[in-house]
Fold this protein.
Amino acid sequence: MARVLVVDDDPDVRQLVEMKLRLDGIETLTATNGQEALDVLATNDVDLVVLDLMMPVLDGIETCRRIRELEDMSELPVIMLTAKAQASDIQTGFSTGATDYVVKPFSPRELLSRVRGTLARAGVR
Amino acid sequence: MLAEIVNIQERYRQSRDVAGLWEHLLTSVLRCSGCELGFIGELVWNDIGVPNLETRASTVHESLPPDLGLIISEVIARSDDVLVAPGAGAGFLGMPLVVADRIVGVVGLSGPTHVISSDTAEMLRPLIGVVAAIVESITNATQRDVVTERLERNLAFLEAVVGNASYGVVVVEPDGTIELANEAALSLLGADSEALVGDSLGGVMSPRGVDWVLSQIDEAPSVSDPITRRTVQMLSLSGIPFRADVTVGAFKLAEDRRATVLTFRDIEAELLAQATALRSADLLSFTPDLVVWSDATGAIEYLNAGGRALTGVSDLDGVSIEDLFAPWAADRFGREIVPELRANNSWIGEMALVDRTGTEIPVSMTCLFRHEGDNTYFAVLARDLREHQHLELLQHAFVSTVSHELRTPLTGILGYLEMFGSGDLGEVGPEQKLALDVMSRSGDRLMELVDKLLQIASIGETALREPESIEVAGLLEEGRSGWSDRFFGTISVDADRIGGATVAGSTSELKAVFSGLIENAVKFSPNGGDIQLSAEVVDTSVVVEVSDSGIGIPADDIDQVFERFFRASNAREMETQGAGLGMAIARAIVRKHGGEITVTSAPGQGTLVRVSLPLAQTGQTNKGGDRDGESPGGR
């Protein structure tokens, strides 16, 4: 079973993503900021990270950068969730190593299909 | 006073004691002046007993007739202006001809010289006549020559005084012919000297004025008292009338020589000049901006209150313009800006001042360099940009926060609505489904509104620092293909005439403009029809017309289509969706690119939107920036 880490400081968004993914049979872990996410990644095997950009403590951009610096994590798929819809923001996301991005407010169905697509490309079912 | 002088004159005319006469005259003048004054320096008595202060005479103008000296000294004496004499006062007959409130260019005198107020000038007037009489009374040819020579010695100086006077001086013959005119008179009358001298006074003065002036000559007594004064209508040679304050003093220099000295000033122009100077000074002292000017070396001559507050400089002594700048800016001023100023006379850009604590103050700055004869100066106007920069930061933070704060809750609403609608959360009945659809649509509209608001907020914010080169034909084609499958009429593009014409700017913004215009055309053409996009080059611009055959815009509404949140009355009736921001956004973007957008429409027939953008080839890119008073809107 695929396992996805959902990182968002907003509990409603976190719950929405979790629910949509679980309904499709994906196991989820959660974190409320970047630092928590790194802690979870240190002790758990995760197939994909759904990462919000604007978060307290450690934001999504910096978190993504640090994930890429971790051993064995350079290829970990990261889908960024961003409320920043401007081209420059999206560019920043990709340049720090995001695999894909979804702009808030997003369609849960679209997010799910991106998660599924990304997992498939990474060889996870 | 006059009686006393006449007495003296009579007494000494009889005794022929010339030296005694001068002494008396001088003493009388000094006593009558009411001023604390005295001759300091050496009184030199010449061979005919004429006392004189040792002065270095100005160039003698042999060509000037002696009586001109009288006329000129008369002018000086009746002037309200305070005049300054080089080698002050030791003029003809030792009589202080010149009135001064400060001393400049004193030559040949040891120590300070005397100062006489304009009140004294009043006292001196009668003496002029005495002088004339004295010259007449000298029978000894040698003495007369000496006196005449003294007189001539003063002519150059006197001529200079009259020449530099701020009021017009003309000498008029009894027949009304103008015999002499000073520079100020020529300037006030808009004439060169050939045009004025020899002309009739009637050419520059009303008939009533001329009558009055000439009547003064007819009645001229042997001394030039009293002087009369009136406000008279005068006329410049170019036909511009003005009200002048005119004084007239007539002379009878000899039985057969009479003339009038006429001084005049343009009252209204002087009042205006005074008011202008006063108001300019007021404005300069009230503005918070820095205004400074310096001489050609950079030494500050004036710094306004705003500039003093900004920089903390209060004592201007020895302060130069460069001292007001931050070190790097001072360096740039000397190295880069001054050379450019000397070449182009002006410079505009951003610089940094420095205050007393060494803190840099970012400013937008305009510099001027003026070099015309003696009129050489640098002027600098600088505006503190700190507040502006702070506001820019706030705006950026606002846009970013709003973006985040509005989108996040919308995520919860729209996400769960979708899951409800798709049955993720259990079966929903047809009526519930209907309600969920409406909620989803409303959520989508809210989202669109948020996007457009953010778009408006960010247009002014991002200057086109690195404009892209954008092919207009491509933009139009892209716009067409994006909408053609959502419209059951036809959308056609005619861009053949512009070939590969490009404009400079932001691709995404201009794309939004044309996409938005096509969206409008589609939205307001409910029955299909033709939407045409045509482009041509007009002068240095690309002009694109987007026309539809839709419902049009009522005449009452067309002026407001660029207002934010404006929606035309028929658009509201149609219940089409829209926030009324599309046209506002379009205009903001077009103007930012240095272009213009206009709308013409006829209800029931369609709408034509015309967008003109400057061609990139002209080298013109972004001139617009964010404009104040922007009031974009929609239909």
Remarks:
- Residues 386-421 of chain B form the longest helix (36 residues).
- Chain B has a mean pLDDT of 71.
- The first strand of chain B starts at residue 43 and ends at 45.
